[in-house]
Predict the structure.
Amino acid sequence: QVHLVESGGALVQSGGSLRLACTASGINFRLFTMYWYRQATGKERELVASITGSGSTNYADFVKGRFTISRDNVRRRVFRQMNTLKPEDTATYCCQVRYRGVPYWGKGTQVTVSS
């Protein structure tokens, strides 16, 4: 069974920083690309970053320069360092992996940025 757990969400002021983590189990973690999505109230879910098993990263334009994604294959975790947070970054952040054509999601962690 694939299981993903996110952590690190919090209430912060505009300009602050957070580090989110996603811990995976039930898969051969090293072989799979991990994705970070977010969904704000009233908006569509959007992809914000990804990292492949080999370490290649990709970022949405609206977070480039502020967010960094990395992975720890020993502990089977993916991290997202989020700097210079803005109120528009307020959302539920979820990690995702696709295994045998099936997407698996964590339950998400809430990030709230006050103005």
Observations:
- The first strand starts at residue 3 and ends at 7.
- The chain has no helices and eleven strands.
